[in-house]
Amino acid sequence: MEFKPPIATRSTDELISIAWLYPEDYQELAIEEANRELSKRNIHKLEYQKLIHQTHKHKEKTARLEDEFNRYKSTQNLTLPEIIYHTALWPLPLVASIFQFQTIYELFGQGYTRKAYQALALRVLGFILLLITINLGI
């Protein structure tokens, strides 16, 4: 039987799909030819399974590192320049004050929750200090 496109011209990924991943979707003859072609290409199921296992281990390690980094980000404190900015300097460009609050939401969105809460508290403190300064006429 001849397949279109011929089994021998198909990519290795397609052959792996036919022979090992989704054999229930193909005729028995196609599966046998795919296995023969994979053998010709020196690709064996055991080696493929080892590669898949290594890939899964790598994905697990990457996920674990991402979790650690996200935990690290969520516990970060503001630096001294950030404290000064969020307390005293943010009211200066009053026109841009709407955009200034966007940075707090960006901190939340990026996972820096502690920094975001600190920035919000310092903005409120800075606003109160600004009102006191205006009322005292300083």
Model description:
The termini are far apart. The protein is built from 6 helices and no strands. The chain is an all-alpha fold and 138 residues long. Helix 4 (80-89) crosses helix 6.
Q: In summary, what is this structure?
A:
The chain has 138 residues and is mostly helical. It has helices spanning 12-21, 28-40, 45-74, 80-89, 97-109, 113-136. The longest helix is centred in the middle third of the chain and has 30 residues, at 45-74.
Key words describing this protein structure:
138 residues; mainly alpha; 2 domains; 72% helix; 0% strand; rod-shaped
Outline the fold blueprint:
Layout: H1 12-21, H2 28-40, H3 45-74, H4 80-89, H5 97-109, H6 113-136
Strand content: under 5%
Kindly provide the radius of gyration, computed on alpha-carbon positions and rounded to a whole number of angstroms.
30 Å
Helix fraction?
over 70%
Oligomer: single chain
- Shape by Cα distribution: rod-shaped
Structural class: mainly alpha
Query: In the residues, how many domains can be counted?
Result: 2
Number of strands: 0
User: What is the residue-averaged pLDDT?
Assistant: 83
Number of helices: 6
What's the SSE pattern? Answer: HHHHHH
Which consecutive residue ranges, at least 5 long each, have pLDDT under 50? none
Distance between the termini: 93 Å
Strand count, sense and barrel status of the largest sheet are:
none
